[in-house]
Each structure stands twice: as structure tokens, then as C-alpha cells.
């Protein structure tokens, strides 16, 4: 009797434990298909084996995955060529190729995730790289449309592409990612080399960003279900930060800002003083950005009069017609900037004043303490456009130094709510431009070839000039013509047209 009573108590407990275990397995994406205890998923598409990349991340082959049903599963293929610039063979050297639409279904924890899609445009079997034209949707949002990875890679001068999106997974915990060839030609196909899913906290909607509308504070809340695409993530003034060195186990890549600096006036880059420690405050958890971002910076330079005559500017090509969230990371890391009102500056975005009197010490509370601030901007039109980000000293509070500083910059594109779209056009392939040295070599060759002909004509030319001089020797000049060069309009020497509220400072004459 006692034993029967004990069994009646134990069996329900065991059943409940089994249900919980199955639920946790499903939340992790299906047992062995989740390569990270935090619920992260990595699929090396077209591969049948597990492998590790150069950053130490483990990838599961999708051939034996629960995410790849037996029907309409596409074809596993291997790239015909390994570009030397590939950071790793995993996941780039294998691909899953689709002649028709295919959907991967992932079971993940509800909330924010980074979805990263890895593309290596190469020939796969009898399919050429240029024939890959397709779209990608996920979570009901169009991420890519008529995407040509080969053209995009050529335009960016890159061998491979990583497209990163932030999506909000609803309470069902299902994230469906669909690849579909574009209509119009039977040769079009879709492909993907790797799919990575990284759960994250909500790092976008709070604090509420400010609309960059000419310096008038205007908070612009972002809907919790908004999808984002990462356009740029820059470690300003520092070296690139690899995914393995990112904070929060998010495996983000932080690129150097050097390729995007406008003109020759790039300011100066520097690292933190040896006695300065990066101290994250409660308002800036470490997963916002790794220490390497806050431990390096770029400023305008030590000469006040020079700083007053230019803007420290970055040019970032983006897709027109979308809203963008720009996140600026700041941290004072060198003496003597330790007090309020030693360095104050403007932040301009697309010729609009986003922030006046940006004083990092006043915002953060001290040296070595990170702070970040978000701004929203809207763009119009279609195709690609250049986004201008500029800094300039703000003298309104009479700061001790006429300078500006930036440690990191992120640019995120927001989905359009009406069409649930994030897709932009493929970037145009720039016309081939010769390096200066190559142009000089071409000029030298042309001069050598032309020199032979010119030498033969020189004697004839001299003879003609002599004859003309003899004929004109006794003649009296009747007029004198003075040739003046055409008037050349003034050009700005330091970046885009001077933003509102800064033109007066350029001519202030203050020292």
C-alpha cells in the first residue's frame, strides 16, 4: 500500500521532469543542433560534419540537421576556389544551393536575436556565381530582395559577405528563414554558406533615441518588434575587433574606421593611458561594446586653430529611403581631459545638428567611464546615398580645448513598417580606376612612343618658327592682348557644406 502510494507520487514528478527536459531541448534548437549552451545556433550549410572556425565557434553541418527537411532541401555544394582572404574554410567553402524556395525553421527563445547570413560568391558545381539572384525573408520581414552576392562583393572589393540582422522572435519561439530564387530566369538560384543565430538582450529600443533634426531634442521611440540591419560597426581610432574578442559572447565584428574618413584631415588616433581603467557603469553594460572599443579613440588633434577650420568627418554609403539608428560610443581615456567643460563639440548627421555641447565627461561622469547615445535620421529617395557624420568643436561654453572625440560608431537600418522591408538595391560596381603609379607608367610609355615622332617634327617646327620670325622682324606690333585665367569659384577645403550653427565658429577668430 505504501509502495503504491509512493509510486503514485513519484511517477507524476518524473513525467513533469521529462516534459521540462523536452521543452528545454526544444528551446535550445534541438539537442545537438545547438552548438552553444546559451542557445546559439550555427549551421555550416552544405556540410555533413561539425567543424570549428578561426574564432573558435563550433558549426554543425546542416545535412544531418533537423532544420533541413528531406523534401526540397536543395543541393549541397562545394566552392570551386578558396580565396586567400577567407578568414576560415568554415562555413565558407560549402554551401546549400536552392533552385526553388526553401525554409529553415529554428526553435529559439523568444526575444531579440542576431541573425547572421554568410555568403561566399563562387561557382558551385555547374552554377556560376553571377547566376545567384534571390531573396531572403525571416520573421515576416524581407531581409534581401533580388540579392546578387557576386555583384555586391565586387562593389565592396570583398571576397565574402556577412549580413547581420536583429529580429524580435515572438512568443512562439519559431524563427523561419526562407531563401527563394528571384523570378525571371530559370538560371537564378539561391544559396547560403552559413546561418548563425545569437540571442541578445534588447539593445535597440532603450534608451529612447533622439531624432537628429537640427539640435532640437525630440525623442523617437522605436517599436519593440522592429527589425534592424547592421550597416556599420566601427572601432573608431583603433584596430578591428574580431568576433572572438567581442563582449557578451555576441561575436560581433568591429571594423576599423580608416576607410570611411573623409579627406586627408583624419585627426589623430590614440589608445588609453596605461593608468586608466575602463569602468562600465550600470547604464552601459559590458555587452554594449567590448573594452577594445572604449580603449581607443580618434580626436581632431592638438592644434586649436586647425580644429576650428575643419570637421572630423566620416562618409558611410547607405540605402536611401530608410530610417537609421546611429549609436555613438564615447569614453575619455587620456589626461588631461578629466573635468567637465574641457572638451565640448557638435555632432552632425547628414548636415543636421544631432547634438550640441557634447561633453563626454559631463555625460559619463569621469575618465575611463563609457557612455553611448543614439540618434535617428530619415533618408529619402532610392538607391544608394552617402551618410555624412561629422564632429566640430562647440565654443558656446568656452571649453578649455577646441577638440572632439569619438570611440565607436554603429549604424543600423530600420525596417519600413508598411512593407516590412529591410532590403536595399545591390550596390553599383565602380568603374575601374588606375592607381596613381599605374597612370604614371602609362604616361611614361606614351611619352616614350611619342618622343620618336616628336623628335622628327621638332626640326620642321623650328624651321617654321624661324621663318615666321624673319617675316615679322620689321613689323610693328599693333596691339597687346592680356590673357587672364577664368574665375574659379571658391571650394570648401574641409568636407561637406558647413552644417547649421557651425559656420560662425569657423570665422570666430577665437584662440
TrEMBL record:
GO molecular function term, any single one: transmembrane receptor protein tyrosine kinase activity
Membrane topology: Single-pass type I membrane protein
Main location: membrane
The keyword Iron appears for this protein: no
Residue ranges constituting the Malectin-like domain according to the UniProt record: 43-413
Protein localization: Membrane
Biased composition regions of type Polar residues, renumbered to the chain: 500-511
Keyword Membrane tagged: yes
Keywords of the record: ATP-binding, Glycoprotein, Kinase, Membrane, Nucleotide-binding, Serine/threonine-protein kinase, Signal, Transferase, Transmembrane, Transmembrane helix
Range of residues in the leader sequence: 1-25
Disordered as annotated region, ranges: 488-511
Gene Ontology annotations for the cellular component aspect, listed alphabetically: membrane
TM helices/strands, residue ranges: 444-470
UniProt protein name: Malectin-like domain-containing protein
Amino acid at each position: 500500500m505504501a509502495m503504491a502510494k509512493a509510486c503514485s507520487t513519484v511517477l507524476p514528478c518524473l513525467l513533469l521532469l521529462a516534459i521540462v527536459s523536452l521543452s528545454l531541448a526544444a528551446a535550445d534548437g534541438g539537442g545537438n543542433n545547438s552548438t552553444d549552451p546559451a542557445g546559439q545556433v550555427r549551421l555550416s550549410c552544405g556540410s555533413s560534419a561539425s567543424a570549428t572556425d578561426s574564432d573558435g565557434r563550433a558549426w554543425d553541418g546542416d545535412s544531418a540537421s533537423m532544420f533541413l527537411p528531406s523534401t526540397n532541401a536543395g543541393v549541397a555544394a562545394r566552392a570551386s576556389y578558396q580565396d586567400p582572404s577567407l578568414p576560415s574554410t568554415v562555413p565558407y567553402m560549402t554551401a546549400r544551393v536552392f533552385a526553388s524556395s526553401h525554409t529553415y525553421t529554428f526553435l529559439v527563445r523568444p526575444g531579440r536575436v542576431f541573425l547572421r547570413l554568410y555568403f561566399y560568391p563562387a561557382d558551385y558545381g555547374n552554377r556560376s556565381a553571377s547566376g545567384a539572384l534571390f531573396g531572403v525573408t525571416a520573421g515576416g520581414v524581407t531581409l534581401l530582395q533580388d540579392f546578387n552576392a557576386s555583384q555586391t562583393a565586387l562593389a565592396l572589393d570583398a571576397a565574402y559577405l556577412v549580413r547581420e540582422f536583429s529580429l524580435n522572435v515572438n512568443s512562439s519561439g519559431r524563427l523561419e528563414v526562407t531563401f527563394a530564387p528571384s523570378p525571371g530566369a530559370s538560371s537564378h538560384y539561391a544559396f547560403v554558406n552559413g546561418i548563425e543565430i545569437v540571442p541578445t538582450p534588447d539593445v535597440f529600443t532603450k534608451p529612447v533615441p533622439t531624432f537628429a533634426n537640427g539640435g532640437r531634442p525630440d525623442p523617437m521611440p522605436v517599436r519593440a518588434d522592429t527589425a534592424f540591419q547592421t550597416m556599420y560597426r566601427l572601432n573608431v581610432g583603433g584596430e578591428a575587433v574580431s568576433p572572438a574578442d567581442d563582449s557578451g559572447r555576441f561575436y560581433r565584428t568591429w571594423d576599423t574606421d580608416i576607410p570611411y574618413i573623409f579627406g586627408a584631415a583624419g585627426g589623430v588616433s590614440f589608445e588609453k593611458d596605461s593608468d586608466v581603467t575602463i569602468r562600465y557603469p550600470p547604464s552601459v553594460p559590458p555587452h554594449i561594446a567590448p573594452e577594445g572599443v572604449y580603449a581607443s579613440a580618434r580626436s581632431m588633434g592638438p592644434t586649436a586653430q586647425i580644429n576650428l577650420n575643419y570637421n572630423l568627418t566620416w562618409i558611410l554609403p547607405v540605402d536611401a529611403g530608410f530610417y537609421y539608428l546611429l549609436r555613438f560610443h564615447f569614453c575619455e581615456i587620456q589626461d588631461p581631459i578629466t573635468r567637465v567643460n574641457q572638451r565640448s563639440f557638435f555632432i552632425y548627421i547628414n548636415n543636421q545638428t544631432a547634438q550640441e555641447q557634447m561633453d563626454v565627461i559631463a555625460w559619463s561622469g569621469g575618465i575611463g567611464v563609457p557612455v553611448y547615445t543614439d540618434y535617428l535620421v530619415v533618408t529619402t529617395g532610392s538607391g544608394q546615398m552617402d551618410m555624412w557624420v561629422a564632429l566640430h568643436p562647440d565654443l558656446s561654453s568656452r571649453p578649455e580645448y577646441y577638440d572632439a572625440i569619438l570611440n565607436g560608431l554603429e549604424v543600423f537600418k530600420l525596417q519600413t513598417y508598411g512593407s516590412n522591408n529591410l532590403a536595399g538595391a545591390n550596390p553599383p560596381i565602380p568603374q575601374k580606376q588606375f592607381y596613381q603609379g599605374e597612370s604614371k607608367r602609362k604616361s611614361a610609355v606614351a611619352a616614350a612612343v611619342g618622343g620618336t615622332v616628336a623628335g622628327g617634327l621638332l626640326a620642321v617646327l623650328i624651321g617654321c618658327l624661324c621663318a615666321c620670325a624673319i617675316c615679322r622682324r620689321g613689323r610693328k606690333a599693333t596691339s597687346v592682348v592680356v590673357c587672364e585665367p577664368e574665375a574659379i569659384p571658391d571650394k570648401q577645403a574641409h568636407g561637406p557644406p558647413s552644417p547649421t550653427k557651425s559656420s560662425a565658429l569657423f570665422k570666430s577668430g577665437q584662440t
